[in-house]
Structures are given as structure tokens and as C-alpha cells.
Amino acid sequence: MMSSALSDLHTQLAAWCQSYVAAFNARDADAIAAHWSFPALTTQAGRSFAFKSSEHFSKNTEILLGFYQAQSVDRVERELVGCHVMHRDAAAITVSDVMYTAAGETVASWNAAYVLQRVDGAWRAVMAVADGETEAWAARGTPLGG
């Protein structure tokens, strides 16, 4: 049975996930960046990428959104599949992402992991492990990030 505190945390982090996805579906790089605390780190394919500011992150995200558009991605759906409390103001989550065309066909899907920290009362990502996404795009024949 899930404790009340853990249930509340799960609800908060699921809401963060849905807000993050709404920003992606709106193709709003600045709104996506607002879900992060900087500096931030992402890892994929054995490499790590540090983002020093929201402007730096937004610029990279604009490129990513262009890639998604070129792959006919119309919308993304995300489900929170796992949550680990690291501290009262820190958590690690695993999510399942599925990208769809306008006709509802699956373009790609993967799991990703994030470390989030509560900053000024709001959850913000500080790190993401994007290896699942990198592998999904490569398997499709459309490698992400060259």
C-alpha cells in the first residue's frame, strides 16, 4: 500500500510529467525549459551534455522539436511508471513516452529517467537519462543527434 506522502508525491510528479508533455505538444521550447533547473545534465549514447542556462537548453530544444516535426510527430503522451524518493525535495522518476502522428500511428516509444528537485516549491528536472530515446530513434533509422 502506498503511504499518503508517497501518493501525494506521485500525484505531484505525474502532474509535472503532464505539464512537461503539454509544453512539448505546444512546441514551446521556453515552456519546456521552465520545467528544468540549471545547470542541468542529460545523458545519451555514452555522452553527457550540460546546459548552463534556460536559453542554452531552449536553443537545443528548438532543434529537437524540429527533428520531431521532420519525423511527423504530432503529439507525445507520457506515463509516470516509477518513482523513487531520494529526499523530501528530490526524486528519481522513470517515464514511458510514446510519440504519435496526427493519424494516431505510433512513431516511436521509449522509457526515460529523470532526477527532479523541488525548487521554490516547484518540481524541476536537474538530470535526464535519454538513452532509451536515442536507441528508439536509431532503431527506426532516424538517429537522434547524429
Key phrases:
6 strands, 36% helix, alpha+beta, 146 residues, 41% strand, Nuclear Transport Factor 2, Chain: A
Structure notes:
- There is one protein chain.
- The protein is an alpha+beta fold and 146 residues long.
- It has one domain (4-137): Nuclear Transport Factor 2, Chain: A, CATH 3.10.450.50.
- Helix content is 36%, strand content 41%.
- The chain is built from 4 helices and 6 strands; from the N terminus they run ααββαββββα.
- The chain has helices spanning 4-25, 29-33, 54-70, 131-139, and strands spanning 36-44, 47-51, 75-87, 90-100, 106-119, 122-129.
- Strands 2-1-6-5-4-3 form a 6-stranded mixed β-sheet.
- A hairpin with a 5-residue loop joins strand 4 and strand 5 (106-119).
- The longest helix has 22 residues, at 4-25.
- The chain is globular.
- The relative contact order is 0.17.
- The mean pLDDT is 93.
List the helices and strands and how they pair.
Blueprint: H1 4-25, H2 29-33, E1 36-44, E2 47-51, H3 54-70, E3 75-87, E4 90-100, E5 106-119, E6 122-129, H4 131-139
Parallel strand pairs: 1-6
Antiparallel strand pairs: 1-2, 3-4, 4-5, 5-6
Order of helices and strands: HHEEHEEEEH
Based on CA atoms alone, the radius of gyration comes out at 15 Å
- CATH class call: Alpha Beta
What is the global morphology? globular
Class from helix and strand fractions:
alpha+beta
CATH architecture: Roll
Low-confidence stretches: none
Oligomeric state, counting identical vs distinct chains: single chain
